[in-house]
Design goal:
- By secondary structure, the chain is an alpha/beta fold.
- A 5-stranded parallel β-sheet has the order 7-6-5-8-9. Strands 2-1-3-4 form a 4-stranded parallel β-sheet.
- Strand 1, helix 3 and strand 2 form a beta-alpha-beta unit.
- Helix 2 packs across helix 12, helix 3 crosses helix 12 and helix 6 crosses helix 7.
- The chain is globular, with a radius of gyration of 20 Å.
Length: about 325
């Protein structure tokens, strides 16, 4: 039997139906479901490292990527995940077409629903947009980032990256640093990592902290050096200048001086610390290139690889939930 055949058998043995029709938030998950998704994603990692990566698990299914905001990494990974599973994949960028012409989100939902897709992957600049769409279409909806709310599949791929690096997530000390205020990645990661038993800190300037951060159940630090002291993982966040109103940070040089990650600050972390970033990176603003490219410390490339595998797992599980309903 070929390695590919063995890989397919392994994946089929790990497969399971998603517990809900949609995947909109980390709150749609519980620890057993997370464990099942990460185990399934591990199977897809092994498959994706083989020469023949194509399966027919979603053959005949239609996946539409509906991205109202540009996102090279997330959109391409969902596209690649769908195609590797055998789905028909359509990418739509309404920001450049119908929306410009005045079509509302509800109009778009009605139009797409008439096309009879099976899974709709949505990214939108407004919090709650994915949830609204899920109420207007018959297919499953995956939230690929909505405003400052959530990005649940990113949290899953980050958890998988940590688990493969350390062998576990429970008990890890994780510092999420930078523009926490505007980050849906931070919100999803805080929810998922605390669910899995990690000890989470958020680190950044007071102007880039949410007003309710003290209710998140995490440590809050405004000094980078003390904030990452002794941690196992430092997760840097992109400085989202496009979402900022007013002068929330000093100059880019000053931001990097106080809150950018360099070797001097990183030396305060645990000896085996690993560095993460959801991308795209602003080198010299959030993170120094010497740290980002450090093969012994950086998990940034692994995050990209894990993103495809995790999204394959989510798509497969949701398609099985749809088959169960059907």
């Amino acid at each position: 039997m070929t390695n590919q055949a063995l890989g397919v058998d392994d994946i089929r043995a790990r497969a399971f139906p998603f517990p809900a029709k949609h995947f909109l938030s980390v709150t749609d998950l519980d620890p057993p479901t997370v464990a099942d998704l990460l185990a399934l994603a591990d199977g897809f990692v092994a498959l994706n490292r083989q020469k023949n990566k194509k399966l027919d698990l979603l053959k005949g299914r239609t996946l539409i990527n509906l991205f109202f905001e540009a996102s090279t990494r997330t959109q391409s990974s969902f596209e690649l995940a769908g195609k590797r599973l055998g789905a028909d994949v359509v990418n739509m960028s309404p920001r450049a077409s119908s929306i410009v012409k005045g079509e509302t989100l509800i109009d778009t939902a009605v139009t797409l629903n008439a096309m009879q897709p099976d899974i709709l992957v949505v990214r939108h600049g407004s919090s709650g947009a994915a949830s609204l769409l899920s109420q207007k279409v018959d297919c499953s909806v995956i939230n690929a980032g909505d405003g400052q709310h959530e990005h649940p599949s990113q949290a899953l791929l980050d958890a998988l990256s940590m688990r493969r690096a350390f062998g576990h997530v429970d008990g890890l000390k994780v510092a999420i640093c930078g523009d926490v205020l505007h980050s849906r990645v931070a919100r999803s990661n805080v929810a998922l990592l605390t669910m899995l038993g990690a000890h989470v800190r958020v680190v950044g300037p007071p102007t880039l902290m949410p007003a309710d951060v003290t209710r998140w159940g995490v440590e809050v630090h405004h000094d980078m050096k003390t904030g990452i002291a002794g941690v196992d993982v430092v997760m840097m966040l992109r400085l989202q200048l496009e979402r900022m109103q007013g002068a929330l940070v000093p100059s880019m040089r000053e931001y990097f001086r106080f809150w950018g990650l360099d070797r001097e600050k990183l030396a305060r972390a645990a000896p085996g610390v690993r560095v993460m970033h959801p991308g795209p990176m602003n080198r010299g603003v959030e993170i120094d290139s010497a740290v980002a490219d450090d093969v012994e410390r950086s998990l940034i490339a692994e995050q990209v690889e894990m993103g495809v595998a995790v999204r394959m797992a989510v798509l497969d599980a949701l398609s099985r939930e749809g088959a169960r309903r059907g």
